[in-house]
Known about the structure:
By secondary structure, this protein is an alpha+beta fold. It is 21% helix and 32% strand.
Amino acid sequence: MRKCLSRFLASYLTAILICLLAAPRQVTLAQASLFHSNTVQSHPVNLDFELGAVGQVPEGWDSPTKAGYAAELTEDQAKSGKRAALLRDVPGASNNSPFGNLLQTIDAATLRGHRVRLRAAVRTEAGARVSLWMQVDRRANKTGFLGNRPITPGEWQYYELVGDVDEDAVVINIGMLLANKGKAWLDDVSLDDLGKVVVRAEPPRPLTARGLENLVAFTRLLGYVRHFHPSDEAAAADWNTFAITGINEVEDAKNAADLSQKLEYIFRPVAPAIRVFLTSEHPAPPRELSPPANESALRVVSWRHQGFGQKPGRTRSTRANECGRRLRAERCRKILPIRDNLSGRILAAVCLVWYRWPCSAMRRARCLTPPLVRRNQKTIW
């Protein structure tokens, strides 16, 4: 994919919405139907795609772009469970739709005024232009939140969108869009209520020197954990919300010692093994950050980043899960400086690899099954 995928898809959806507002009524209704289902669900249904007949549109879902595209249940390499949804073009079909769409329309009544997160696993064929999308429809044919998340071609990866549901919202539309030829698979979808949107009415005020130092320390640690910490919690975190909450927590830290305590408290939920401390303390590396004795027999999870985010066609971020790969202990115990010129320099011990072993190698009763840990693996720490 050599062109800027994210810009293409974003502008593509935006252009369609502009056309909906400017086109004649009969054209508007025809195009609008491609982003809506005639059936409105009272709550999200069949998000794991286990209901319905193989080869047919998944139960509870709709595909209004049947001219040229097909949406169906498949048992081919599902991400979770036995089945996934497949969206593909139909070669040689006449009267092709401008794109393929698999969607579900949900009543927004119980989510009005709330922030929601759409998360799903997507797998695509090479060359397919795919995006995960979410749109909120308001009363009087007004459009609320509209977001799309371009998908990187390749094996299963999780993607998410976070948006606000307006107080006058009618329905929430979620789905996957295929903008050209190819195939895309969708599985393990979730639509989470992140709570009531709270608007902070705080007037402008000057930032103190101490507050600036605190925020710089926070943002440095945020960069390390967001892009390199391999935990399931970090991979699934809503980082925009996390950043806003963290800034409010650390800005008023009184000194470096107070700041180190606050930073560790904030980051522990997404980076369980993290340690933040003053250089004067010289603590020994915690036991949790030492690799296990049977390292070569375990799966090693770590992030791999290629390129920089301003060139979407040339960048890639993957969370590698490998077997039999030996790593030096120093990599997991690496000490990362957060801010050199704080009073009492602050350091953080950030783990860069995560160890797991397959459940098949141990008794079933020992498998951990919290929401963010896979059922067929056990997290070592």
